[in-house]
Design a protein that fits this description.
globular, about 250 residues, alpha/beta, Uracil-DNA Glycosylase, subunit E, six-stranded mixed β-sheet, binds uracil
Length: about 250
């Protein structure tokens, strides 16, 4: 068998078959009827064991290092013409929480680092009271990796061009929970036109990973009234991750 795709399919079937053998062994050992294991999605495991061959246009199957090398080379959309640096994302790996914003601002474009400007520093203050930080358990990324001129919202085609990078990044970070901050991120990943106000407060899923939505820190800096709902959302994040509130009013 030479084709990598065939090998990947065989590996998936083998892993599923292994579960069936485990069911049979359990039935033998316990002398009880065992509910057959469900059909599982082994795609992340298969990507690790048998990654797809890489080319510049195929983030699918890339390792984190390969993806980090691909993004600065990207010319998929016109944002590459005006960027100073691409902003891949950064934080702890593995991360319990992956926060996804919309795109780099001027500080991020100048440094190549995610969420280092005013909004990013403010975002850090949401996380600290529940024991979360980019140094220990949080990874930060954006929907588009290049700054849109004048900080405008990224256009649909720009979001679409960047999505394969984001999708692969999510698979590689393997967070327990994703927090989407702002309407650009929630529209892009939840495939909806509903605003943050409608989406926040309940769980969604992106490719099987639980997702919560809250306002963008830049929006909260502009509108104090959003502080209270954001704190409710952060408490929901903490509860899901079994984290205890550290000192701040509950
Ligand atoms: N706003 C974002 O959405 N992302 C950043 O990295 C910085 C500001």
């Amino acid at each position: 068998m030479s084709n990598i795709q065939e090998k990947r399919e065989a590996l998936g079937q083998g892993l599923q078959q292994f579960l069936t053998y485990c069911d049979q062994a359990e039935a033998l050992i316990t002398s009880k009827e065992v509910t057959p294991s469900p059909q599982m999605d082994f795609s992340s495991l298969i990507d690790e064991i048998l990654p797809l061959p890489l080319d510049k246009d195929a983030p699918e199957g890339a390792t984190m290092k390969q993806l980090q090398r691909m993004v600065p080379e990207c010319t998929r959309c016109p944002l590459c013409e005006t960027r100073t640096h691409t902003v891949f994302g950064e934080g702890a790996l593995p991360a319990r929480l992956l926060i996804i914003g919309e795109g780099p601002g001027s500080n991020e474009d100048a440094t190549g680092r995610a969420f280092v400007g005013k909004a990013g520093q403010y975002l850090d203050t949401w996380l600290a009271p529940v024991g979360l930080s980019r140094k220990t358990n949080v990874y930060l990324a954006n929907i588009v990796k290049c700054r849109p001129p004048e900080n405008r919202n990224p256009h649909t085609d720009e979001v679409f061009s960047c999505l394969p990078f984001v999708k692969r990044q999510i698979q590689l970070v393997k967070p327990e929970l994703i927090l989407l901050v702002g309407g650009v991120a929630s529209k892009a990943l939840l495939n909806t036109d509903e605003g943050v106000g409608k989406l926040r407060g309940r769980f969604h899923r992106y490719e099987g990973v639980p997702v919560l939505v809250t306002y963008h820190p830049a929006a909260v800096l502009r509108n104090e009234e959003l502080k209270r709902p954001v704190w409710e959302d952060i408490k929901k994040v903490a509860a899901f991750l079994n984290l205890t509130l550290q000192g701040k009013s509950k």
